[in-house]
Design brief:
heterotrimer; A mainly beta; B alpha+beta; C mainly alpha; A: 3-stranded antiparallel beta sheet; B: alpha+beta; Cytochrome Bc1 Complex, Chain D, domain 2; two-stranded antiparallel sheet; 5 helices; 25% helix; disordered N terminus
Chain lengths: 106, 153, 270
């Protein structure tokens, strides 16, 4: 599965407020469900999302059960310098996905 | 329509097919026989007594699933369908016998009806394995549902 | 289909069925009649505002994850041939545009009815010397979604010519056949009770123009056959396997009923 899709404007003016979008593929099993045989379905969720801009962390989110499968996070940032914006999701069972997009600021 | 023809075959006591349904006995494996008189089944199935409180559970729960198609505002349910008529006041409009036939086998009264027959096994096609050989509701559940519907006045 | 339009001026279902029987008896192949809901209305028009917005925004639409995945698979070599889809077809945006709008269709070489999933697997076998992808597998859903997505906005225009007619006739028969412990046919909900409520759900015309769809109930993308099986389950009928001849025939008939509707892949539904 395409693990993630992210959206970052290719270019922006310095000081401009930009919108960042990050969609990740994940089943988000809550850990509260049971099988028909009474066995608990183990929790399998994304626990943390971090966005870094030019090496500096600009957003950190802690995720919990019952948010959503395949979560989409949309947030804003101020365009400061040209560089890489990294999106990283980590979670249960060693889940780790990252996507990098570049932005040119002028 | 052609796909409905097979479902109209009936086992009829005495070998006489009474299409206007004056009176006939229907017998099927695992189903208790019942008598149709006009548009009613007057006698309770297997002479069972119905319990309205249990009937409300059947109507609202997964077994009857009546609210999928019928609105019954008296239940206080949040979501109710409208494929069938609302059942408010149905206890005043229809007798117990009329209600019973309309649950047991509504196709008797209207071959085009989309309402399933809740106490019938023959004339059905391609029934999934787990549901084969059993009616949708038991005789007791039907009597309970009839008892509940009679309280809607 | 001008002839079909003329016949379709008769809205009465009983007479329509009578005409159908005559066609079946004669084994002739005149143009099919027009169903009551014509022009067709897409399922998205019966969906709630939030679901509509979710489908309309490519970022809020999780089905795009499968489309993106399919784009990767399109470029990857597969099987003993070492060839990718792109090696033969090139740019999917050009080569695949409008293709999904013509499926299912009869394969000229084998006279078999193939839907998009079947065509992809046929290509894997014949062109890539690769194993077929399992129905409902992530990779097959992704490739199907990717190929169908290239036709987004194109009107469905499936062929029901002489070669397709036997499949079409069987599909129509299935549509009007009562089945299961609930003793219901497709027509009872999706033709006779469109717009009414089944509990909290509004019944749609049951078109397949948005598949594969992302269904919130599944929390995943899924095929039309998966959705059809859910209806069989609901009426408590034996469920044919995904990819089976029965569901293919029904898919063709449904595609004909939906003709003119734009491909929406990937659709979002509740």
């Amino acid at each position: 599965m395409a693990e993630a899709i992210v959206s970052v404007p290719a270019t922006a003016r310095r000081g401009e407020i930009i919108e960042l979008k990050a969609l990740v593929r994940h089943p988000m099993e809550t850990g509260f469900r049971y099988t028909q045989r009474g066995e608990r379905v183990p929790r399998n969720i994304v626990t943390q999302f971090v966005c870094s801009y030019d090496g500096a962390e600009i957003l950190r989110a802690t995720l919990h059960p019952a948010i959503t499968a395949n979560p989409l996070l949309v947030f804003n940032a101020v365009a400061t310098v040209s560089g890489e914006i990294e999106f990283r999701w980590t979670g249960d069972n060693g889940f780790s996905v990252s996507e990098i997009a570049t932005i040119v600021v002028n | 329509m052609a796909f409905m023809m097979g479902s109209r075959k009936r086992a009829v006591a005495g070998g006489v097919m009474l299409l206007s349904a004056a009176a006939c006995a229907t017998v099927s494996d695992n189903l208790v026989p019942y008598q149709i008189s006009g548009d009613e089944i007057r006698a309770p199935l297997a002479a069972l007594a119905g319990d309205a409180a249990r009937g409300r559970d059947v109507l609202m729960g997964r077994d009857g699933n009546c609210l999928l198609c019928h609105a019954v505002p008296e239940t206080g349910a949040r979501f109710m369908g409208n494929l069938g008529p609302p059942l408010s006041g149905v206890g005043a409009r229809l007798s117990a016998g009329q209600l019973r036939l309309r649950i047991v086998d509504p196709g008797r009264l209207n071959a085009e009806s989309i309402m399933p027959s809740y106490y019938r096994m023959e004339g059905l096609a391609r029934v999934a394995g787990v549901w084969q050989g059993k009616p949708v509701l038991t005789a007791q559940q039907i009597e309970d549902t009839v008892a509940y519907l009679q309280t809607l006045r | 289909m001008p002839a079909a339009t003329r016949l379709g001026m008769v809205p009465d279902l009983g007479r329509w069925s009578a005409a159908l029987s005559t066609i079946l008896l004669l084994g002739a192949a005149p143009a099919p009649e027009t169903p009551p809901h014509h022009p067709a209305k897409s399922g998205i028009d019966y969906a709630s505002d939030d679901v509509r917005r979710m489908q309309a925004d490519d970022f809020a639409n999780p089905g795009m994850l499968w489309v993106a995945q399919g784009g990767k698979r399109w470029q990857e070599p597969a099987g003993n041939s070492g060839k990718s889809c792109a090696a033969c077809h090139g740019d999917a945006a050009k080569a695949m545009k409008g293709v999904a709008a013509r499926y299912p269709g009869v394969d000229a070489a084998t006279s078999e009815l193939l839907n998009l999933e079947g065509r992809i697997n046929r290509c894997r076998k014949d062109q890539q010397a690769a194993e077929p992808l399992a129905y409902e597998s992530e990779d097959l859903l992704a490739l199907t979604a990717y190929v169908a997505h290239q036709s987004r906005g194109q009107p469905l225009q499936v062929s029901v010519d002489a070669a397709a007619r036997p499949y079409f006739a069987r599909g129509r028969e299935i549509y009007y056949r009562r089945q299961g412990q609930m003793n219901l046919a497709c027509t009872h909900c999706h033709e006779q009770n469109v717009g009414r409520k089944l509990l909290a759900d509004t019944i749609s015309e049951g078109h397949g123009n948005a598949y594969p769809i992302y269904r919130l109930e599944w929390q995943s993308a899924g095929s039309l056959h998966r959705r059809l099986r859910a209806c069989y389950f609901g009426v408590r009928a034996e469920m044919p396997a995904a990819g089976s001849a029965e569901l293919l025939d029904l898919e063709l008939y449904l595609a004909w009923r939906a003709r003119g509707l734009p491909v929406e892949t990937p659709g979002v539904r509740r």
